[in-house]
């Protein structure tokens, strides 16, 4: 934890304006899936705990997902997908978030809505959105969506820090959002990543500290 970030009035979290972003926590990226990221299964309980805290607080949650559809994917993935690799294909079970993350009675993902840029509602204050590249703000309406919901602070959790979570954190910082990194709810995270992100004003916190800081509903 960085005292400088935690006490800086320009960087410290505004918990009453916080939203949770889960990044790429989908069945195909969990061990046993089509393209597993090591360590993702191990952080699922912490992600679920964080989700429960945000749901209890009535704060917004946005699940950011990938769906590899045609050629609208990162250049580095196009060769693999050209072989027919069944990774997070629209409408496939592997594109769905795993069971520990799903709200009660959550519907399956709606590929047509998501690929057109829509936000699929999953709960009273919970949505799913698609991103076409690494960062969740690239070619999406995520910034506008968060602003419309009064969000000033994003808590980021999810899958494979060096890729999509890192890009999303940088993009959030570029948009003057305060950023908290949920350290035990993120796969692929290493000690040196914490120093790198603190250098751009990100506050690293464990899930229990985030849950304790969220305001009560009502």
Structure, explained:
The chain starts with a helix and ends in a 5-residue tail after the last helix. The protein is globular. It is α/β, with parallel strands linked by helices and about 220 residues long. About 30% of the residues lie in helices and about 15% in strands. Strand 1, helix 2 (about 40-55) and strand 2 (about 60-65) form a beta-alpha-beta unit. It is built from eight helices and seven strands. Strands 3-4-2-1-5-6-7 form a seven-stranded mixed sheet. It has helices at about 5, 40-55, 75-80, 110-115, 140-150, 165-175, 190-200, 205-215; strands at about 20-25, 60-65, 120-125, 125-130, 155-160, 180-185, 205. Helix 2 (about 40-55) runs parallel beside helix 8. It has a single domain (about 5-215), classed as Rossmann fold, CATH 3.40.50.
Put simply, the count of helices is 8
Largest sheet: 7 strands, mixed
Summed over residues and divided by their number, the pLDDT gives a mean of 95
Overall structural class, as computed from helix and strand content, comes to alpha/beta
Q: SSE order in H/E notation?
A: HEHEHHEEHEHEHEH
Q: Output the CATH topology.
A: Rossmann fold
Cα-to-Cα separation, first versus last residue:
29 Å
Flag low-confidence runs: none
Spatial order of strands in the largest sheet: 3-4-2-1-5-6-7
CATH class label: Alpha Beta
């Amino acid at each position: 934890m960085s005292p400088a970030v935690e006490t800086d009035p320009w960087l410290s979290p505004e918990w009453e304006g916080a939203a949770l972003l889960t990044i790429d926590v989908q069945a195909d990226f969990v061990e046993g899936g089509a393209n597993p990221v090591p360590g993702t299964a191990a952080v699922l309980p912490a992600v679920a705990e964080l989700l429960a805290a945000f749901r209890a607080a009535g704060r917004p949650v946005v699940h950011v997902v990938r769906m590899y559809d045609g050629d609208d994917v990162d250049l580095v993935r196009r060769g693999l997908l050209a072989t027919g690799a069944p990774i997070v294909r629209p409408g496939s079970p592997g594109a769905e978030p795993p069971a520990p993350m799903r709200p009660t009675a959550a519907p399956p993902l709606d590929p047509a809505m998501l690929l057109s840029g829509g936000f699929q509602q999953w709960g009273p204050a919970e949505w799913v959105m698609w991103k076409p590249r690494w960062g969740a703000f690239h070619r999406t309406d995520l910034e506008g969506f968060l602003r419309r919901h009064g969000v000033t602070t994003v808590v980021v959790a999810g899958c494979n820090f060096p890729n999509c979570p890192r890009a999303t954190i940088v993009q959030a910082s570029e948009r003057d959002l305060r950023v908290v990194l949920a350290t035990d709810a993120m796969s692929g995270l290493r000690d040196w990543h914490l120093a790198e992100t603190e250098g751009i004003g990100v506050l690293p916190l464990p899930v229990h500290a985030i849950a304790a800081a969220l305001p009560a509903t009502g």
